[in-house]
Amino acid sequence: MAVHKLILDDAFDDALYTLIAIHCRLEDYRLAYLLNKRLGIVLSRKASDLDFYNGHVSYSIFEWEDKKQLTVWSLVSNICKTTELKQSDNTSLFDNQEKITKTFQLLPEYKTVNYFLKIDSEISLSKEKYILDSILSIPQIATAYSVDSSQLKSKENLIFN
Protein backbone atom coordinates (compact mmCIF):
# COMPACT_ATOMS: atom_id res chain seq x y z
CA MET A 1 0.00 0.00 0.00
CA ALA A 2 1.40 3.38 -1.03
CA VAL A 3 1.75 6.14 1.51
CA HIS A 4 0.95 9.67 0.42
CA LYS A 5 2.48 12.49 2.36
CA LEU A 6 1.21 16.06 2.09
CA ILE A 7 3.62 18.86 2.84
CA LEU A 8 2.11 22.25 3.60
CA ASP A 9 4.85 24.86 3.53
CA ASP A 10 3.27 27.76 5.40
CA ALA A 11 0.59 27.95 2.72
CA PHE A 12 -1.97 29.07 5.25
CA ASP A 13 0.28 31.62 6.97
CA ASP A 14 0.49 33.91 3.95
CA ALA A 15 -2.95 35.45 3.87
CA LEU A 16 -3.44 38.04 1.18
CA TYR A 17 -3.91 41.40 2.83
CA THR A 18 -2.36 44.83 2.95
CA LEU A 19 -1.68 46.43 6.32
CA ILE A 20 -1.18 50.17 6.80
CA ALA A 21 -0.07 51.67 10.11
CA ILE A 22 -1.52 55.08 10.99
CA HIS A 23 -0.12 57.51 13.58
CA CYS A 24 -2.60 60.16 14.73
CA ARG A 25 -4.30 61.50 17.86
CA LEU A 26 -7.85 61.44 16.45
CA GLU A 27 -10.73 59.53 17.96
CA ASP A 28 -11.59 56.35 16.07
CA TYR A 29 -14.92 57.60 14.71
CA ARG A 30 -13.32 60.84 13.45
CA LEU A 31 -10.52 58.95 11.67
CA ALA A 32 -13.07 56.59 10.07
CA TYR A 33 -15.04 59.61 8.83
CA LEU A 34 -11.94 61.24 7.32
CA LEU A 35 -10.84 57.98 5.65
CA ASN A 36 -14.34 57.48 4.23
CA LYS A 37 -14.31 60.98 2.81
CA ARG A 38 -10.78 60.82 1.38
CA LEU A 39 -10.77 57.24 0.04
CA GLY A 40 -14.41 56.97 -1.03
CA ILE A 41 -15.09 54.01 1.25
CA VAL A 42 -17.88 53.41 3.79
CA LEU A 43 -16.31 52.24 7.06
CA SER A 44 -18.87 51.75 9.83
CA ARG A 45 -18.48 50.65 13.44
CA LYS A 46 -19.07 46.96 14.06
CA ALA A 47 -21.65 46.01 16.66
CA SER A 48 -19.02 44.46 18.91
CA ASP A 49 -15.38 45.33 19.52
CA LEU A 50 -12.47 42.91 19.31
CA ASP A 51 -12.21 41.32 22.75
CA PHE A 52 -9.07 39.81 24.22
CA TYR A 53 -8.29 38.42 27.67
CA ASN A 54 -11.91 37.41 28.35
CA GLY A 55 -13.35 40.83 27.61
CA HIS A 56 -10.90 42.82 29.74
CA VAL A 57 -9.19 44.35 26.69
CA SER A 58 -11.15 45.52 23.67
CA TYR A 59 -10.22 47.32 20.47
CA SER A 60 -12.65 49.35 18.38
CA ILE A 61 -13.13 48.15 14.83
CA PHE A 62 -14.74 49.71 11.77
CA GLU A 63 -15.41 47.60 8.70
CA TRP A 64 -16.65 47.89 5.12
CA GLU A 65 -17.21 45.11 2.61
CA ASP A 66 -16.69 46.24 -0.97
CA LYS A 67 -18.86 43.78 -2.90
CA LYS A 68 -17.68 45.03 -6.31
CA GLN A 69 -13.98 44.44 -5.62
CA LEU A 70 -14.58 41.52 -3.19
CA THR A 71 -12.52 43.33 -0.58
CA VAL A 72 -13.02 43.89 3.15
CA TRP A 73 -11.57 47.07 4.67
CA SER A 74 -11.01 47.13 8.45
CA LEU A 75 -9.86 50.01 10.63
CA VAL A 76 -8.85 48.79 14.07
CA SER A 77 -7.31 50.61 17.00
CA ASN A 78 -3.95 49.34 18.20
CA ILE A 79 -4.06 50.78 21.71
CA CYS A 80 -6.40 49.89 24.58
CA LYS A 81 -6.08 51.52 27.99
CA THR A 82 -7.73 49.98 31.02
CA THR A 83 -8.02 51.40 34.51
CA GLU A 84 -7.98 49.26 37.61
CA LEU A 85 -8.33 50.17 41.26
CA LYS A 86 -5.54 48.84 43.44
CA GLN A 87 -6.43 48.44 47.07
CA SER A 88 -3.77 49.70 49.46
CA ASP A 89 -2.72 47.39 52.29
CA ASN A 90 -2.11 50.25 54.69
CA THR A 91 -4.57 50.58 57.52
CA SER A 92 -5.35 54.24 57.88
CA LEU A 93 -8.24 56.56 58.43
CA PHE A 94 -8.59 57.23 54.74
CA ASP A 95 -9.35 54.73 52.06
CA ASN A 96 -6.35 54.76 49.72
CA GLN A 97 -7.23 53.35 46.35
CA GLU A 98 -4.77 53.87 43.56
CA LYS A 99 -5.87 54.01 39.95
CA ILE A 100 -3.57 52.02 37.73
CA THR A 101 -3.75 52.50 33.98
CA LYS A 102 -2.51 49.62 31.86
CA THR A 103 -1.87 49.91 28.13
CA PHE A 104 -2.27 46.98 25.76
CA GLN A 105 -1.43 46.83 22.04
CA LEU A 106 -3.12 44.69 19.39
CA LEU A 107 0.28 44.29 17.70
CA PRO A 108 2.92 44.69 20.43
CA GLU A 109 5.69 45.03 17.82
CA TYR A 110 4.21 48.42 16.88
CA LYS A 111 3.67 50.10 20.25
CA THR A 112 3.52 53.66 18.87
CA VAL A 113 0.99 52.99 16.10
CA ASN A 114 -2.51 54.25 16.92
CA TYR A 115 -4.54 52.48 14.19
CA PHE A 116 -4.18 49.84 11.51
CA LEU A 117 -6.02 49.80 8.20
CA LYS A 118 -6.26 46.22 6.93
CA ILE A 119 -7.35 45.59 3.36
CA ASP A 120 -8.22 41.91 2.85
CA SER A 121 -7.08 41.63 -0.71
CA GLU A 122 -3.88 41.67 -2.66
CA ILE A 123 -3.63 45.10 -4.23
CA SER A 124 -1.10 46.44 -6.69
CA LEU A 125 1.79 48.62 -5.56
CA SER A 126 0.40 51.60 -7.46
CA LYS A 127 -2.98 51.29 -5.70
CA GLU A 128 -1.26 50.88 -2.33
CA LYS A 129 0.80 54.02 -3.02
CA TYR A 130 -2.39 55.89 -3.99
CA ILE A 131 -4.08 54.82 -0.72
CA LEU A 132 -1.03 55.84 1.32
CA ASP A 133 -0.78 59.21 -0.43
CA SER A 134 -4.49 59.81 0.18
CA ILE A 135 -4.14 58.96 3.87
CA LEU A 136 -1.07 61.18 4.23
CA SER A 137 -2.96 64.08 2.64
CA ILE A 138 -5.26 64.21 5.70
CA PRO A 139 -3.78 67.03 7.84
CA GLN A 140 -4.60 65.39 11.21
CA ILE A 141 -2.53 62.28 10.42
CA ALA A 142 1.11 62.49 11.50
CA THR A 143 2.32 59.60 9.36
CA ALA A 144 1.22 56.36 7.71
CA TYR A 145 3.18 53.53 6.15
CA SER A 146 2.83 49.96 4.91
CA VAL A 147 3.65 47.12 7.27
CA ASP A 148 5.30 43.92 6.01
CA SER A 149 2.90 41.29 7.33
CA SER A 150 5.43 38.49 6.89
CA GLN A 151 7.58 40.04 9.65
CA LEU A 152 4.75 40.19 12.22
CA LYS A 153 5.01 37.97 15.27
CA SER A 154 1.38 38.35 16.33
CA LYS A 155 -0.43 37.86 13.00
CA GLU A 156 -3.20 35.89 14.70
CA ASN A 157 -4.46 39.13 16.29
CA LEU A 158 -5.37 40.36 12.79
CA ILE A 159 -7.97 37.62 12.26
CA PHE A 160 -11.17 39.52 12.89
CA ASN A 161 -13.84 36.99 11.90
From TrEMBL:
It comes from the Bacteria. InterPro entries: IPExxxVDY_fam. This is IPExxxVDY family protein. The lineage of its organism: Bacteria, Pseudomonadati, Bacteroidota, Flavobacteriia, Flavobacteriales.
